[in-house]
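re: the backbone from monday

yeah here it is again, tokenized this time
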């Protein structure tokens, strides 16, 4: 039996976002899951085994088809009004939708991301998470040392000044150039989507634009290997995103996303070549509760690997997170507190990832 290959990942509680002035470290020696499964395993290591209160209930539930928004119809003067109503309803009733005819080039990024995870471990380890940081390649430790069944590569991509020089700039040239083009496309797409969302909410579009202009953007490239006992593990534990919106690209077309709708967990089936957009906590706060962020998790299966890339879109670091002033009036008082974006992110990353707990914390009374 081959020895496990360990990567050292630092689970950090900090008073800063990407660097700490007073950190509290819990250090775990964490095996790369991709490396772990290269040798057949008879049982799942304890640190990956999680208790699920809903996995058994999913066995006989057919995959849900989430609402579909056609981006071309949003852009067309003839069809924009009707499609905008669908977008508003999807964000209000579901908090998630799949976007078709979006115009983003997906094939090249699919090939390049797959190539990155096929690199030898020593090559990937050049981008490992460093002590006291949250960005980089590795496996994430959760509470009580429990681990997600997956490896990830997370990095902040905007503002440019916040990029880590040892991450994106040091990637193999072909992958770096492909990701740069992909980031540009995501920025253009998200800007247009936020404009339509502001229109659907009937909020001041300039207020939305100023809040997200040159905002915090990041991406997480995730690799979920097949697991011999998928019912015992979770690819990514249940949570809602601390973002305005998140745009998810299922790189290799393998489903695994599950969402919580009306108190029930539903597996989700995506249309080929679609992007999946979900409402984040910040958009729920901004809309003063009109739109609802979606609680979700990633599951794995016993036969196929799943690869995805999530693009996170959030306000500027110097913005204030709170209900949009153009929506607040005596008939619609604020139900969420206001907080600076930098403090919002700092608070979020110092709390345990669990459902929509941080959003509940943000509520007034």
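seq for it, each position gets an aa:
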């Amino acid at each position: 039996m081959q020895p496990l290959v360990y990567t050292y990942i630092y689970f950090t509680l900090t008073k800063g976002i990407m660097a700490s002035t007073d950190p509290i470290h819990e250090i775990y020696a964490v095996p790369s899951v991709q490396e772990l499964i290269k040798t057949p395993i008879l049982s799942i290591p304890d640190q990956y085994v999680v208790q699920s209160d809903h996995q058994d209930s999913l066995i006989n539930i057919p995959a849900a088809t989430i609402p579909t928004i056609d981006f071309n119809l949003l852009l067309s003067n003839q069809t924009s009004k009707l499609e905008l109503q669908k977008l508003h309803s999807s964000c209000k009733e579901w908090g998630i939708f799949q976007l078709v005819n979006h115009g983003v080039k997906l094939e090249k990024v699919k090939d390049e991301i797959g190539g990155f995870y096929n690199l030898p471990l020593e090559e990937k380890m050049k981008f490992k998470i460093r002590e006291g940081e949250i960005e980089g390649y590795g496996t994430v430790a959760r509470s009580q040392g429990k681990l997600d069944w997956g490896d990830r590569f997370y990095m902040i991509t905007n503002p440019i000044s916040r990029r880590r020089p040892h991450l994106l700039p040091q990637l193999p040239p072909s992958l770096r150039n492909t990701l740069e083009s992909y980031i540009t496309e995501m920025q253009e797409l998200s800007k247009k989507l936020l404009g339509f969302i502001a229109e659907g909410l009937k909020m001041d579009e300039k207020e939305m634009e100023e809040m997200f202009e040159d905002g915090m953007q990041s991406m997480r490239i995730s690799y979920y290997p097949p697991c011999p006992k998928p019912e015992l593990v979770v690819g990514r534990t249940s949570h809602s995103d601390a973002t305005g919106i998140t745009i998810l690209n299922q790189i290799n077309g393998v489903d695994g996303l599950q969402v919580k709708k009306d108190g029930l967990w539903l597996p989700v089936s995506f249309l080929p070549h679609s992007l999946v957009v979900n409402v984040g906590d910040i958009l729920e706060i901004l809309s003063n509760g009109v739109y609802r962020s979606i609680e979700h998790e990633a599951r794995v299966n016993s036969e196929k690997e799943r690869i995805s890339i999530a693009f996170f879109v959030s306000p500027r670091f110097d913005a204030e997170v709170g209900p949009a002033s153009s929506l607040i009036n005596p008939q619609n008082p604020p139900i969420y507190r206001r907080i600076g974006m930098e403090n919002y992110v700092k608070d979020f990353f110092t709390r345990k990832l669990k459902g929509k707990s941080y959003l509940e914390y943000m509520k007034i009374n």
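The mean pLDDT is 86. The radius of gyration is 20 Å.
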